[in-house]
Design brief:
The protein has 308 residues and is mainly alpha-helical. It has a domain of 134 residues. Helix content is 72%, strand content 6%. A two-stranded antiparallel sheet has the order 1-2. A two-stranded antiparallel sheet has the order 3-4. 9% of the residues are buried. This is TSG101 and ALIX binding domain-containing protein. It comes from Acanthosepion pharaonis. It holds the Pfam family EABR. InterPro entries: CEP55, EABR.
C-alpha cells in the first residue's frame, strides 16, 4: 500500500533485554500457574485493544494496518504458546529442569514487553492519525467556507454587473427620451411661431381686405357722386333744348331719387339707363393709386393688393 505524506514512520522496537526482574518473574510464573494465566489474559486484552484500534482507525491508514496485522499475528502466536505452556505446567507431574522453564517464561515476558511496546506505538500512531484527520477536516471545512464565500462574491458581482447594465440601459433610454423631448419642443416652437406668423399674416390680410373694402366703398361712393353730378348736368341741359330722339330713348320723363348703373347707386331718373350700343366705348376701371386701367374688377382687386 502507498504511504501518505502525513503517515508517521514506524518506530523500531528495542530488542528485549534480560534483567533480574525478568528472571524473577519467570521463576514466579513457574511456581504460580495463576500468574501465567493472568499474563495470558492480559495478552488477550492487548489483542482486543489492537483489534478495536484497528477497526476504529481513521480511513487513511496504510502502514498502521500492516503493523496492526503483524501485531495481531504475533499475539495469536504468543497466545498459542502461552496456552501450550499453561497446559504443560498444569498437566506435567514433574518439572525436570527449572532453567528450561525459566527461559520459556523469559521468552514470554520478552514477547509481552514487545507486544506492549507495539500496542503503545499503535496507540500513539492512532492519536497522530486522529489529530491529522481532525486538522484535515478543519482545513476542508475552511476550504468549503472559503469556496462558499467566493461563490457568494461571484453571485454578488454578477448581480452588480446586471444592475450596472440595467442602469446603463436606463440612462441611454433617458438621454434618448431627453433628446426626443428637446426635438419635440423645438418642433412645437417652430409650429407655434409658424402659426403665430400665419395668424398675423391672416390678420394683416384681413385688415388689408377691410381697408380695400372701405376704399372700394369710398371709390363707389365717389363714382356714384360723379355719375349723379353728370346725370343731373345732362338732365338740366336737356331742359333748355329740344328733345332729341336719342335723349328720349335714354332718359325717362319721370325722375326718381336713386338709380343703379353698373352696380353703383346714382341719383337721377327713375328709369334705368339703356344699354349702350356696341359701338359706344365701355368705361375702364382704374387704380386709385397709380391710375392703371383694368378691364376686369378681379384684376383691379389683385392689383390693388399689390400696389397698396
Amino acid at each position: 500500500m502507498a504511504s501518505h505524506p502525513g503517515d508517521p514512520k514506524p518506530q523500531s522496537l528495542p530488542p528485549p533485554v534480560a534483567s533480574l526482574q525478568h528472571l524473577k518473574k519467570a521463576l514466579n510464573l513457574t511456581k504460580d500457574p495463576e500468574a501465567l494465566q493472568k499474563l495470558i489474559k492480559e495478552n488477550e486484552e492487548y489483542k482486543k485493544k489492537i483489534r478495536m484500534q484497528r477497526y476504529s482507525d481513521v480511513p487513511e491508514r496504510s502502514q498502521t494496518q500492516v503493523q496492526v496485522a503483524e501485531l495481531q499475528q504475533e499475539l495469536q502466536q504468543f497466545a498459542h504458546q502461552c496456552q501450550t505452556m499453561y497446559h504443560r505446567l498444569t498437566n506435567a507431574e514433574n518439572i525436570k529442569s527449572i532453567p528450561i522453564a525459566s527461559m520459556q517464561n523469559y521468552d514470554l515476558l520478552a514477547e509481552n514487553e514487545k507486544l506492549r511496546a507495539k500496542v503503545a506505538e499503535v496507540t500513539e500512531m492512532n492519536k497522530k492519525w486522529q489529530m491529522y484527520n481532525q486538522q484535515r477536516e478543519a482545513y476542508m471545512k475552511k476550504l468549503c467556507s472559503l469556496g462558499s464565500g467566493v461563490g457568494q462574491c461571484r453571485t454578488q458581482e454578477g448581480v452588480k454587473t446586471s444592475q450596472n447594465t440595467n442602469i446603463g440601459n436606463v440612462q441611454k433610454d433617458t438621454s434618448k427620451l431627453e433628446e426626443e423631448n428637446l426635438a419635440l419642443k423645438a418642433q412645437i416652437k417652430i409650429f407655434t411661431e409658424d402659426f403665430e406668423s400665419e395668424r398675423q399674416d391672416r390678420e394683416k390680410a384681413q385688415a388689408r381686405v377691410n381697408d380695400l373694402e372701405e376704399e372700394l366703398i369710398k371709390l363707389k361712393e365717389t363714382q356714384h357722386e360723379k355719375n349723379s353730378t353728370t346725370s343731373e348736368l345732362g338732365y338740366s341741359r336737356s331742359l333748355g333744348k329740344y328733345d332729341y330722339p336719342t335723349q328720349q330713348k335714354l332718359y325717362s320723363p319721370q325722375f326718381s331719387r336713386i338709380s343703379k348703373h353698373g352696380g353703383l347707386a346714382t341719383d337721377g331718373c327713375s328709369e334705368t339707363l339703356a344699354p349702350r350700343s356696341p359701338s359706344s366705348p365701355t368705361k375702364k376701371l382704374a387704380c386709385p393709386s397709380c391710375m392703371k386701367i383694368f378691364e376686369k374688377q378681379s384684376e383691379l382687386l389683385e392689383h390693388v393688393d399689390i400696389c397698396f
